[in-house]
Amino acid sequence: MITGREETVEKIQQAALREFYEKGYLKASLRNICSRAGVTTGALYFSFENKEALFRSILEPLVEKYKSMIAELLAQEIADRSGNADLDAMLMKFILEHRMETIIIMERAQGSCYEGFRQLVEGMMEQSFRSYYQSRLETEPDPGLMKLLAKQRLDSCIAIVKEDYDMEYSLYLVRQIGIHAEGGTEKLIQSLSELHSS
Description:
By secondary structure, the chain is an all-alpha fold. 82% of the residues lie in helices and 0% in strands. The chain has helices at residues 4-27, 30-37, 41-47, 51-79, 84-97, 99-107, 117-137, 143-162, 167-197.
């Protein structure tokens, strides 16, 4: 059974989610959050020490789950590139179920504890690309190229999240991009192999 305090916390978090989504972390106002939630500032401070604690309470469980998922999926991807489109679709389904939180943490977290999260994700993707290409080329791949491939992949995911597509169409797009990437990856490996052998 949900207690009155749990209900208040839930109302504050939902109001805060909207405020952070619309204004970003830096411009979000605790006064506006209280007004949206229909609670006093005292009720907010009873549950959350400050804006950072409130922000963290909303995003931390999702961030931990996302980091765990992406590490697992990137490891699988390195081991078996053939399932890439399906792996991307699984991760994207989770992201789409948390669309507002994803946009906040990737684009509107400046000034918060999660300010560098986008760079962290991009770095994980870059490492995945580097490991995979190195295993196929048997030489260290160009770091600038790996950075651009990771950025391109993350940017395409975020572009899908920001559109108002339904889940089915979003996952369709992710699968098609994954299939396209698989073909492009093979061509790029062939091209890089020829460069290294000449």
